[in-house]
Specification:
By secondary structure, the protein is an alpha/beta fold. It has helices spanning 73-87, 103-106, 122-131, 139-144, 150-153, 227-239, 255-277, 282-297, 301-314; strands spanning 6-8, 14-15, 36-37, 42-45, 56-60, 64-68, 93-97, 117-121, 163-165, 169-172, 177-182, 192-196, 201-205, 244-247. Bound molecules: zinc ion (2 copies).
Length: 316
C-alpha cells in the first residue's frame, strides 16, 4: 500500500478527495454506440463496448470519478481509464473499485494510471488470497486458459490496493456520494454493491441479474455461498428503491430485476424448508424443487437445483 493508504473499518467512512473541474458528458440515448449516460452522474460502458467485459460504471462528481469494474487485463483497463478521463477531465481524482475479484471485473486495474486510487474490500482481498488468484491459480488460471480471453489476460495483475475497507464505505466525489455495500458471501465472499445516492442507481454485480447466476462457485470464492446472506442482500438492495439497476452482465433494468430474483430465492427457500421437514433427502428435494420452480420462474434448472441444495444445507 502507498503511504496515503488507510484501512477503513466499521460503517460508513467518507473519503476526502481533492480534484479538478467536472465536465459532464453530453446525454446519449440507449441506441447510441458509445457509453450510456444513465443519470446525472452515472455513465455505463455496456458489456461488449470497447474495454468492457461486463457493464462498467463511471460515476463523475465535481472532485473525482469512480470506475466500477475495470475490465479484463491492462489493455481493456487502459481503454476504460481513457473513457473516464474524457468524462472527468482535468485533475479529478480517479478511483477504481470492483463488484468482485473475478478477472473481467477487477484485473483491468493494471491498465489504469499509477495515480488512480485502487479501492478494495477486505472480503475481495480474502478472495484473491484464499483462491491463489494473484499467483495465477483458480479463476485466473481458468481465464488464461480460455482461447478468447488469453490475449486480454496478458500482463493482468491485481494491484496493491491504496484503500482497503471492511463492511460498507462511503465515497464523496463532490456533489454525489457512492455507498459501497458488502453483499457477500453470495456470488463471491467479497461481492460489493454500489449505490449512487441522489441518482437512484445501484450496481448489483453478479449478485442480481436478469437471469440468476449459478451459486455453486466454491472454487472461485474464499467463502462458500450463503443463500441466507444472498437473499438478505437482495432484500437490502430492494430497500434502496433504485430507479436504475445495473447488473454486471446482461440488460439494465429497474428494481423489478432484483425483486424477481428475490421472489425466486424466497420460493426455493420456502419449498425446501417444507420438504426438509417432511424428511425428503437433498437429492429428492433438488429434483422436486427444480421440476416445480424452474419453468415457473424461468431460471435454468441447474441454478434452481444448486440453490435448493444450498438451502437444504443451511436450513434447520
Ligand atoms: Zn463473477
Ligand atoms: Zn461476472
Amino acid at each position: 500500500m502507498r503511504s496515503m493508504a488507510r484501512v477503513l473499518t466499521g460503517a460508513a467512512v467518507a473519503l476526502g478527495i481533492i480534484g479538478g473541474v467536472p465536465t459532464i458528458a453530453p446525454a446519449q440515448g440507449p441506441a447510441a454506440a458509445g457509453p450510456l449516460k444513465l443519470s446525472e452522474h452515472v455513465t455505463v460502458v455496456l458489456q461488449g463496448q470497447p474495454g468492457a467485459q461486463s457493464n462498467v460504471g463511471i460515476v463523475v462528481g465535481s472532485k473525482g470519478a469512480l470506475v466500477i469494474d475495470s475490465g479484463l487485463g491492462p489493455r481493456n483497463g487502459a481503454i476504460l481509464a481513457n473513457v473516464a478521463r474524457q468524462l472527468a477531465p482535468g485533475r479529478a481524482t480517479l478511483h477504481v473499485a470492483a463488484t468482485h475479484f473475478h478477472p473481467e471485473h477487477m484485473m483491468g486495474e493494471s491498465g489504469f494510471p499509477a495515480s488512480a486510487i485502487i479501492l478494495r474490500s477486505k472480503g475481495q482481498q480474502e478472495d484473491i488470497d484464499a483462491t491463489g488468484a494473484a499467483e495465477g491459480r483458480g479463476v485466473v488460471a481458468l481465464f488464461k486458459g480460455m482461447p478468447n480471453r488469453a490475449a486480454d489476460m496478458e500482463g493482468a495483475i491485481y494491484r496493491t490496493p491504496d484503500v482497503t475497507f471492511a463492511g460498507d464505505a462511503l465515497i464523496d466525489l463532490g456533489g454525489t456520494r457512492v455507498r459501497l455495500m458488502e453483499l457477500g458471501p453470495a456470488h463471491t465472499r467479497g461481492d460489493i454493491g454500489f449505490f449512487i445516492e441522489g441518482d437512484g442507481v445501484v450496481f448489483t454485480g453478479d449478485v442480481a441479474m436478469s437471469t440468476p447466476i449459478g451459486i455453486n462457485s466454491a472454487r472461485f470464492t474464499a467463502a462458500p455461498t450463503s443463500t441466507r446472506v444472498w437473499l438478505a442482500s437482495l432484500e437490502r438492495l430492494m430497500e434502496l428503491k433504485p430507479r436504475h439497476v445495473v447488473p454486471s452482465h446482461g440488460p439494465l433494468g429497474d428494481a423489478s430485476m432484483i425483486d424477481k430474483h428475490r421472489v425466486f430465492m424466497t420460493a426455493v427457500r420456502d419449498r425446501v424448508s417444507a420438504l426438509k421437514k417432511q424428511r425428503h433427502t437433498a437429492d429428492q428435494i433438488a429434483s422436486t424443487v427444480t421440476t416445480e420452480l424452474a419453468a415457473k420462474y424461468q431460471v435454468p434448472e441447474k441454478i434452481v437445483a444448486d440453490a435448493a441444495r444450498l438451502f437444504y444445507e443451511e436450513l434447520p
